[in-house]
Amino acid sequence: MLSRVANSLYWMSRYIERAESIARLVDVNLQLLLDFRSLDDAALDAHWLPIVQSSGDEDLFRKQQPRTTGQSVTEFLVFAAENPNSIVSSVGQARENARMVRDQVTAELWEEINRLYLFLHSPRARELWRENPSDFFRTIRNGSLLIQGLTDATVVRNEGWSFNMAGRYLERADKTSRILDVRHASLPARGLPTAAPSQADALGWSAVLRSCSAWDAYKALHGAEVQPALVAEFLLLSDEFPRSVRFCVRRLDGALRSISGVAEGRFCNDAEKLAGRLLAELQFSTADDIFDIGLHNYIDVAQAKLNAIGDALFQAYIFQPFQTPEEHELRQQEEQQQQVRFPVRPPSA
Amino acid sequence: MATSRPSPAAALPEAFRQYDTGKFFDEMMAPGGTVRPHYQHFLKHFGAVSPADFEAKRRAVDLAFLRQGVTFNVYGDSQGAERIFPFDLVPRIIPANEWEKLEAGLVQRITALNLFLHDIYHEQHILNDGTIPPHYVMSAKHFRREFVNVKVPGDIYIHICGTDIIRDDKGNYLVLEDNARCPSGVSYVLENRRALKRTFPEIFEAGGVRPVENYAAELLKVLNFSAPAGVAEPTVVLLTPGAYNSAYFEHTYLARQMGIEIVEGRDLLVRDQHVYMRTTKGLQPVHVIYRRIDDDFLDPTVFRKDSALGVPGLVNAYRAGNVSLANSIGTGVADDKVMYYFVPRIIKYYLDQEPLLPNVETYLASEEKDKQYMVENLDKLVVKAANEAGGYGMLMGPHATQAERDEFRTRILADPRNYIGQPMISLSRHPTHCEGEGFAGRHIDLRPFILYGEKTTIIPGGLTRVALRKGSLVVNSSQGGGSKETWVLYGNH
Asked: Is ipTM over 0.85?
């Protein structure tokens, strides 16, 4: 398969997953606010800022929005075209990537991505968001789920599929870890939390679960009492829950292996090496290990590892050196000669 | 009791009773208001569709095109807006006997053009014996001197040709121009058919319409046939300028229909005069390139140096015979409107036949007598630049202002090689749904697609373009044109 095509399929799937995650996160937190009686600016800030931080775009947000309110955060995370990770931007990117490989995606899949894109750019989108935010976010989420379902139901299980899956699970692992990180301020830097969480904290942690569609699964396992340590364990280490980091890394590892055909326990490139290592680590860790390091630190490290896997995947399959080493040397020589012939003058001259 | 003959209009469906053919040749209505035989079956069913139903169907089709992304990009639009190519639901119908004549004429034409291109890039008999003055070919903008004496697979230069055909006020079919470089529009032929079948399945039943769906399969056969000698299972790719090209939808559509990779210049590279594509499994050889990029952009080391779309070294690989291109390099000379003037002569020269499909009468500004006539009769003529397309670089004399005519007179006198003149043809008209007017006559043309490989194949049908603006003769999508379905019937009615 063409490297460029593999790259587009990978990013198409990542961006769809990203849009869905943001829709969940914002929706749940808007609803959560309904449970609080009154909130001043400081309280609003404390509520929304970690959510912006979890998207990794705090600096950009500060530049664009003077105040941290539900309105400004939603605007930034949902509609802002200037935010490359907003829902509108993500769906736009997913569509752009799908468009680059129109011949490789099924007609049903393309039409659904296109439909979601056209909806977000129609006046109806903002109308719905004003009238009924919950319905608005459900539309986005359902759009993404329909796209994923169509992928599962219509796409041939070939190499392109594996790149699609690699993108989906890498993004999902990353987003689950980020959502979990939203409430880290209520925890001690290291060690298990000693006291039971306050009522407000408990609501916050249940919002984390609901942002990951994990509320029902968690309740079935641990009952209705929300304990931060159990939430973290569930979202990081569960082997069965399809949005846990461990589950996603296992799928990611599987996708990488089906691309190369290398058996489990071995590797042929850095992406496989790093994914295998991270998986082993998640498989052989307990909640105690995580809280010894501190939840926030642990998540930070895990995110860096996920990024490294993404970079290694790009190096292994997408970016192949365009020139032989000799050609590269020749070009460098030429470039240097050019510099000698046309020296750049310092600005003062 | 005296019985008066019922007026023919009374037999028409309600929506067509006010239809006015004007003083034009109308595809559907014969003079006197009777429906031509090959439209009767269609009209019987179409007349049963209520106006409200029709409106609903029309909207549904537009929406479906937008959803599927059957769109073209508008150059210079900062929003990157995608528009659908307006599609009129009333199909243009061609009976079998007319199509047979068209087909024979088109086969004759592409055969002669391929012989001509081979000749001018090799022995140049037609130039040496003075049948065509050599300076016309040598000065053609798209004549590629670099390709003289280069052998191309099967001696085929034009594999895919889109020839524009019009009908005059008597209903005669005439060739308006040949598109021998990268003709586009065939995806609309296929998509329009799909849309109309979904919209009016009942009209297709027993309608006797010949299918067009095998175009992609036929195209792939031609591409496989043109593979370099000795390659048993060639890898064929489609080379596109990229997702921002106005015809990108068509490129992906065809690639998918043929099951071949669609590549951009940056996906390919040349090693030791062989072409490879970059894949996740390393480099893989490529044997045939269906290129949708003009010559100028193919290879920055040979043609335009600033082109980032092409593949450095591609032309050398092509010269070495390790990769085939469809169409071949240098076919643009056949698109030159001055060369168009000579096509009847070319047919006579190579095939010893009279042209089955006539040209529009044409004056060459570089012939002294013609030039004289042209500058004195600009108000009667259409003047065209030799190498422009898409309705640009053109003067519609009868509709132009005096200033515009003066400007063209200066241009013609300064550079006569670059201009031709033709009488204004009043194109045939076709009933077309028009906002606020119901069904009204609009001017149309026809672009069939001809495939030239082991044998010559023409899919029965083609792109019928329609000038949606009232009175307009310009059918180009960039200038208010739309498209219609083209039905070729198995029989004559």
From this structure: no
